[in-house]
Amino acid sequence: MAQVRQQMALPLRIELWNGQQLDFSSDIPRVTIRIPHPSAARYLLSPSLDNMGSAYVEGAIEVRGAARDMIAIVNALARTTLAQPGRAAKVVRNFVHSKAKDAEAIRYHYDVSNEFYAQFLDPAMVYSCAYFEHGDEDLATAQQKKIDHILTKIRLQQGHMLLDIGCGWGALVIRAAQRFGARCVGITLSENQYALARQRVEQAGLAHLVEIRLQDYRDIRGTFDRITSVGMFEHVGRRHLPEYFAAIARLLSDDGVAMNHGITSTDPDSGETPYGGGEFIDKYVFPQGELVHVGEVLKTMQQGGLEAYDVENLRRHYARTCALWTDNAEAQAEQMRAMGGDKRYRIWHVYLAGCSYAFDQDWISLYQIVCGKAGRHSQGLPWSRRYMYR
């Protein structure tokens, strides 16, 4: 740590168990890390995102300060102390995915409680990247604009049958039915999402147009004019992506349109974020989640029988979305602790801020890809992208 203090000035203070304080600059500290016991000092010897995040989550160290400042400072420590060859290398994971394992992972992440998520999400409870058309929208407005942007992109029309894979709490299918009169099927593996989404459909008077199912995408049968998948394919698994896109192609009508909206790795080899961020997320947040490069998404999409029509990068939008979620989580910290416990709150606190930082630094990205069945003449496909912005 003495070497780090000499190499860089950080608005950081470390408080030791014996009352000693170590300031890393002459500025007023924006983050204070308290080491309550000598055994906890080992985390500072190798301050990776995984080590420091785990120490914070498990209560081995205490951290005071805004989450965005915490993440920036820990990253600065990691860059300075973990720069040796191999220490910051990106890891490629290949998990074994099955229906049972995927359902278990989804339940771990989403079935905390609906009330817990409501503390930091918008009122419609949209848990995916928002769309900031002008950059100054509030969260609720940006989330509705995201949904409208998607529905406009896929050219949804009255009477269309829409399948939403990973429907969350139902915001997209409800909007599709309300605005376009589309018939919708939304599927999720989360029992909490399933229950609340059905309730919201009933309250909106849309039960005649919208059906919510507790179902795996591999078990869906039928034909759909439009298919959306928003923030779900990260759970599919790298080796299963061709199978996943083949399932979409099988369910899509010959002249249908689909859209995949998902997080991607920016590492060309589909590796994880540096300094142990991916390890922390796998351990505490998204078990078995896997991110691949957008090039691999396009490749496996083609292998599954789909042709990409349009690709849009919304990385900056997700950085802002996560920053707003972090602000909400900090404002509702007391309520979230009461609902999920201190440890659960600390996990989401550092996770949301870490994601905002990772998107901002171009460690991960977010792409919307509009596609249709490959090898078709694509009749009716607009010649330009102008229709998306009417």
From TrEMBL:
**What Pfam families does the entry give?**
CMAS, DUF7884
Family matches, as InterPro entries: CFA/CMAS, CMAS, DUF7884, SAM-dependent_MTases_sf
Keywords associated with the record: Lipid metabolism, Methyltransferase, S-adenosyl-L-methionine, Transferase
Active site feature: 355
> Where does the record place the DUF7884 domain?
5-82
Q: Which SUPFAM superfamilies match?
A: S-adenosyl-L-methionine-dependent methyltransferases
Q: Name one GO biological process term.
A: methylation
Q: Which GO terms describe its molecular function?
A: methyltransferase activity
* Superkingdom of source: Bacteria
Q: Which family does it belong to?
A: Belongs to the CFA/CMAS family.
Record-given protein name: Methyltransferase domain-containing protein
